[in-house]
Amino acid sequence: MWQLALRHKLAKIKAKWSHEPIHENLLCAWHASDLSLKQNWQHTPFLVVDLETSSLSANKGEILSIGWVPIHQGRIRLQQAKHLFIQNAQSVGDSAIIHQIRDCQLEDGASLANALDAFLLAAQGHVLVFHHKTLDLQFLNQACLNTCRAKLYLPTVDTLALEKKHLDFIGQPIQKGDLTLSQSRTRYGLPHFPAHNALTDAIATAELLLAIIAHKGDHVTLGQLLS
Hints:
By secondary structure, this protein is of the alpha/beta class.
């Protein structure tokens, strides 16, 4: 966790010299992210997150929707789940073929700044969970840079990375598609789910995380999950 603390400090110094203060909600999320690597996973609040975007590159595309669901004391809290469509300057274009989001659905969506505010408030004191975090984090980091003057810099768990580590450990060759959310769930006997909806994918990832932890045993620490 010291790496995150160092990044927080450097970002604050940069903001001070540039006279562009970091957004208060991001600072609060940083302050609440001081968690112990040795703590049991059940004592760790998680926030499982998924995005739908108009491109695979944050330099070319935009966030179309964001969904999240907390895990508290080892249980998925569906009553606290959230799904937001986000207003965009550009058309969804050909990406609609994948996520089925139409431009008309985004017209009444939240602004990116308001959506990010809601997300950061929900994220305070939580470890973020993604399936294939690299993609989602590049969009969230870009949004935070533009809106909050610093990258996200919060502790994260990547269920894809956990599953890859497990398959490597047992010596199982990894074929193309083996690490997708759907295929990873299948290995743990989890049911099929309708993919490419941000909230549905977040819930599916939350279920996968709990299945992975159950497979590891009772005494899993936060440090064993962080990526």
